[in-house]
């Protein structure tokens, strides 16, 4: 069975659980302490979270890699279009964009917000990251337009990836979003699969059932 290691309420592990719920995949959740234990470091020497194990000796980190792995190993799934579908390129782009562009910028802002000395919380580097994230969000809002999802009429990995990063930016940092993304986040939050994943992330539910 799929096993997802995650901090309690960890958003990037939630991203993977959300996908499992959308696909109807059974999975187990293992909560990781902070700092990580020696037992966890033996599994993942980087100590990074989340971490995924699956049958056949699969053991990987990086949440977007986990998403792509699950879609291909346990698919097919509408979350990842077929290779002949023109939407595939956009889905792959935005799935990576959600972490490599939005998520990376948000990480820098989180570090400054919670860890920087008071005099450095608004230095030039922080302001540059803020501007970069704001540009990325404007790009996302323009791409979304009046469509329900980033790649058209159905949910894909792109939405799970991007919505997670946008949620951290808005929820943890308290930042404002373009109007299009406010409505988008509300649509994502209403998905039953995400509600179930959040309950699992908080340790309020048992194993998912296929």
TrEMBL record:
Top-level lineage group: Bacteria
All residue ranges annotated as the GST C-terminal domain in the record: 84-210
Keywords: Transferase
Alphabetized InterPro entries for the sequence: Glutathione-S-Trfase_C-like (IPR010987), Glutathione-S-Trfase_C_sf (IPR036282), Glutathione_S-Trfase (IPR040079), Glutathione_S-Trfase_N (IPR004045), Thioredoxin-like_sf (IPR036249)
Domain (GST N-terminal): residue spans on this chain: 1-78
PROSITE patterns attached to this UniProt entry: GST_CTER, GST_NTER
Gene3D superfamilies: 1.20.1050.10, Glutaredoxin
A Gene Ontology molecular function term of the record: transferase activity
A matching Pfam family: GST_C_2
Protein name: Glutathione S-transferase
